[in-house]
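Sat 14:20. Reprocessing the chain from the morning session after the first attempt stalled halfway. Input below, unchanged.
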Amino acid sequence: MNNLSLDVVDLKKFPLIKLLKKLPQLSSLYETILVTINDKLVYKFLNNQISFKELIRQIEKFSNLKEFQKYKKIKPKSIREIYSLMNYVSLKMDSISI
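Finished this time. Tokens:
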């Protein structure tokens, strides 16, 4: 493929790659949680409210919450359910304080 060379990813340099191994095989509401966590934290990073290292640390912290793990087994049923979960995750993050 046009001399394309793929290397093993350095997990120390790119620690969030480990999240890929935690994703379920099938679509689930957990992806909604990850996107919500990422969006909220990237917004804070872009507004100079947190550092890049803090962004990574917080993504790891929130994505590993036991409360969110159950959503790996739940398939999305409606848009309303997705939006409701997005709001819930956002409120949960605020309550834990980031």
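The chain has one domain: 16-96.
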